[in-house]
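Supplementary notes for students who missed Thursday's class. We covered one full example, reproduced here. Read the sequence, then the structure, then the short commentary at the end.
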Amino acid sequence: MILPVYLYGQPVLRKQAQELDSNYPELDTLIKNMFETMYASDGVGLAAPQIGLSIKLIVIDGSPMGEDFPECKDFKKILINPEITEFGGEKSSTEEGCLSLPGIHESVQRPSQIKIKYLDEKMEPQEEVLTGFAARIVQHEYDHLEGKMFIDHISPIRKQLIKSKLNNIIKGKVRCSYRTKLLSK
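Structure (token representation):
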């Protein structure tokens, strides 16, 4: 089932997400629905707060980026209760966009390497080091679990320049090719 993507202004996008356990109701169905929603929205990652759930769950499929970024080839993950334990490598700036911020793309500086611990879909503990664009995708989605968005990493001047676009999203004056959930008045 394709779920609505919550847009900028929704309070759930600014909340610290809660951990979940293996007793979470219909977790397999939720994961399947998140992937379906992400694909229908042409995204490469989706965090649970973006569908209105304040839980620590991320789905990623970076495969469409594999031609430009070899580290993303076959990069499909389910991250439950992820924790970035280390940041490393050089920082680089790359343009990012977000399903919750339609029409906004800004250059964001992030470390090029991370170490992350998480549970997979079988609730098995995993730990790995990610680099390049794969690391960027995870950092972007991980921010959603912390109540942050990529615009929190841009300069105050850049934020001022996109203020009218942000206000338009809040007011519902935005067009998306995917199902969305606007801020309720």
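Commentary. Strands lie at 5-6, 45-47, 57-61, 76-96, 106-119, 125-131, 180-181. The mean pLDDT is 96. If anything here is unclear, bring it to office hours.
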